[in-house]
Design brief:
The complex is a heterodimer of chains A (about 270) and B (about 190). With about 270 residues, chain A is mainly alpha-helical. Chain A contains 8 helices and 2 strands. Classes of the chains: A mainly alpha (about 270), B mainly alpha (about 190).
Chain lengths: ~270, ~190
């Protein structure tokens, strides 16, 4: 519905006298299919909520199926799942934390595959909205990471040493601490969760907006003119190319988010040097 | 950077539409936040409890199997090395033995030859000495016999010259003896 709304309606084309209906923030708004209250909070179930639930089911389903009776010599789904598991364990957890990272593999595994799948929803026909382009979702994930590494750091290093190690890194002239300590505090404690969530959100948001813009252009430029037809074809080509590009970005952003989570946890486990 | 620019543009666009009730894309409704957290917790819980322990166990078992295999191979190699060393030692020992046997044989041969040679020498000595004795005895006998025959012949000859028999005359015998003794003395000189 929102796409047609964004495209200015079925009759809006180049020569029909209506301007280019550039898609905006409204393509990230979805009508509530269902709404209910739990205590003081009003919940709305929209297309995005449904896609989120679907993602959960798909991920849980696939991996419990793939790892239901794992064999020493893997085949089929186990092979694929194992590749994912080893990627997270060796490529992210151990890379950031060493052998100690093994404990955090399920945590990071969940993040990577959930985010990847939620991103992927952006190019699934019918779904066509990256769930992570709804800001609340990356915020929720970044919040979980934040509420993991901060208490973990306090628990492992002690309250004072945790902040001391963070704000007063060794090997710096003493006078620099006047400048450095507040910067470190602000960048780690305040800015970090924000950048962590915005990086994912903004990439998926922008990618979706670009694809939507060229899709709308493809539709809008269909008209009885050479320029219009050529423009429409070109826009369509760009839409296809951008979609391919998005596949890359989706995986990359899931990886970056997960890797940063691992790095934050690693920093909490041991004082950074 | 592009992404951030696009976001701010969208935010401006969203704000610009004004009239409609359009929340900012950067708004974080509490219900969406809660749903997001719940979704993560459910997936995390399910994977961490149902799926991932299985595969972790399998991967550990596989690592064990591979490491165990490597360890076994190492052990087998060490065993082979040990046996090889043993064989080498035995071979060296056998060579040493052969060499000592050869040396011994050489020594034995020399000894045997030496013994044989000395035995032969002794035998030869014996043969020589007995031959010499025999020779000496024969000579003595011949000399004695000759002496006696020479006397008799001389006497016979002298008798024939003189014309009478001088055979049983003690004086004649004495003369002959004296003459022979004289001869012997001259020969000895």
């Amino acid at each position: 519905m929102s796409v047609i709304r964004a495209s200015g309606g079925l009759d809006c084309h180049l020569m029909s006298g209506c301007g280019f209906p550039a898609p905006g923030a409204e393509i990230f708004q979805f009508d509530a299919l269902l709404s209910f209250h739990v205590g003081p909070v009003a919940f709305e179930v929209s297309k995005v909520t449904v896609l989120l639930a679907l993602t959960c089911v798909l991920i849980i389903g696939f991996f419990t199926y793939a790892f239901r009776r794992p064999k020493l010599v893997p085949r089929g789904a186990q092979n694929v799942g194992e590749m994912g598991y080893l990627f997270i364990r060796d490529g992210i957890a151990r890379e950031a934390m060493g052998k100690e990272g093994d404990r955090f593999v399920p945590f990071l595994f969940t993040f990577f595959f959930m985010i990847w799948m939620l991103n992927f929803m952006g190019i699934v026909p019918g779904a066509q909205i990256p769930v992570t382009s709804i800001f609340a979702i990356p915020v929720a994930f970044a919040l979980i990471v934040y509420l993991t590494w901060v208490p973990l750091g306090v628990y492992r290093q002690g309250f004072i040493p945790f902040f001391k190690n963070m704000m007063f890194p060794p090997g710096v002239p003493k006078a620099m601490y006047v400048l450095l300590a507040p910067i470190e505090f602000i960048s780690n404690i305040i800015v970090r969760p924000f950048t962590h969530s915005v990086r994912l959100f903004a990439n998926m948001f922008a990618g979706h907006l670009l694809i939507a813009s060229f899709s709308v252009a493809t539709f809008y430029l269909i008209s009885a003119s050479v320029i219009g037809i050529l423009g429409s074809v070109a826009s369509f080509a760009v839409t296809v190319a951008l979609t391919g590009f998005e596949v890359l970005i989706q995986a990359l952003q899931a990886y970056i988010f997960t890797l940063l989570a691992a790095v934050y946890i690693s920093g909490a486990l041991h004082a950074e040097h | 950077m592009n992404a951030l620019a696009a976001v701010s543009a969208a935010v401006v666009a969203a704000g610009g539409e004004g009239g409609e009730e359009m929340p900012s894309v950067l708004a974080v409704p509490i219900d969406e936040l809660i749903i997001g957290i719940i979704a993560f917790v459910i997936v995390f819980g399910a994977l961490a409890k149902l799926a991932l322990p299985n595969i972790k166990k399998t991967l550990d078992a596989r690592a064990d199997a591979i490491e165990g295999g490597i360890k076994r191979a190492e052990e087998a190699q060490a065993e082979a090395q040990r046996v090889l060393e043993e064989y080498r030692a035995q071979l060296a020992q056998a060579r040493e033995e052969a060499a000592s046997i050869r040396t011994q044989a050489q020594a034995d041969r020399t000894a045997i030859i030496e013994e044989a040679r000395s035995e032969a020498r002794a035998a030869a000595q014996q043969v020589t000495s007995s031959a010499e004795q025999q020779l000496a005895a024969d000579r003595a006998q011949a000399t004695a016999q000759l002496t006696r025959q020479v006397g008799e012949l001389a006497v016979t000859l002298a008798g024939k010259v003189v014309g009478t028999s001088l055979t049983d005359d003690a004086r004649v015998r004495q003369t002959v003896d004296d003459f022979l003794t004289d001869l012997e003395r001259q020969a000895a000189r």
